[in-house]
From TrEMBL:
This is Sulfate/thiosulfate import ATP-binding protein CysA. Keywords: ATP-binding, Nucleotide-binding, Transport. PROSITE patterns: ABC_TRANSPORTER_1, ABC_TRANSPORTER_2. InterPro entries: AAA+_ATPase (IPR003593), ABC_SmlMolc_Importer (IPR050093), ABC_transporter-like_ATP-bd (IPR003439), ABC_transporter-like_CS (IPR017871), P-loop_NTPase (IPR027417). GO terms for molecular function: ATP binding. It comes from the Bacteria.
Amino acid sequence: MNPLIQLKNITFKAQNKTILDIPEFQINAGEFLGIMGPNGAGKSTLLKVVSFLEQQTSGEILYLGQVIPIGNAPIELRRKFSIALQQSLLLDGTVFHNIAIGLTLRKISKAVINEKVEYWMELFGISHLAKKNALYLSGGEAQRVNLARAMIVEPEILFLDEPFSALDFPTKIKLMEDFKGIIETAQTTAVYVSHDLMEINYLTNRLAIIVNGEVKQSGPTPRVLEHPNSSTSSFLNEWKKFYPLAR
Ligand SMILES: Nc1ncnc2c1ncn2[C@@H]1O[C@H](COP(=O)(O)OP(=O)(O)O)[C@@H](O)[C@H]1O
Ligand SMILES: [Mg+2]
């Protein structure tokens, strides 16, 4: 295992409530890591803490073995990460402009920007939308733009929080299929938060189940899903009634 990020004795507290309590956790280079758990388990909080959007209350986060001071992650490190959320949060402007934004902020030349935007629009099947205003897209189109915008900066880690949960089923499965191929080709390390067994089963290689702010089980995704432990079985078995585990 080759950890990019390690968590040691992480807690996150708000209003006298412990929302996360994680003695040990890591994100390995090249993996597609799933973080699954019931609503309110602490998944989004964990994603925000490991991507330095929120500060932990105590404990250490290490990047390549170096402790990152709380609340003081260097900009060069933050720029290695991209984040995609359920709401695509696109700006009023063309699809092209929205996808280009990360490169524009990095002062990349226009010619390179054009080439890269074309490339990522092609991969996500949205070249025909280049000149459309991003505020008038369907949910599936908007999420494709959101993911292209996140990937164009070639992040070392892509963090995703329920990116497909608002999409209708046919739109979701087509996008998941495209997205999986794109992540595999780019060899991007991905961390994918979801409460949905079907998404987790299809996309991820390793899985951590979080319940009440604690990681109750982790391991290769098929193994965790097939063999829940006493802390994860009530949550997983509810899902398994409805989704047989075919990969
Ligand atoms: N800043 C905060 N202040 C108070 N409570 C919070 C805060 N952030 C999260 N919580 C609470 O922590 C719990 C976990 O939230 P969250 O990480 O969003 O769960 P999940 O993404 O698994 O649904 C919830 O009960 C939520 O209300
Ligand atoms: Mg959440």
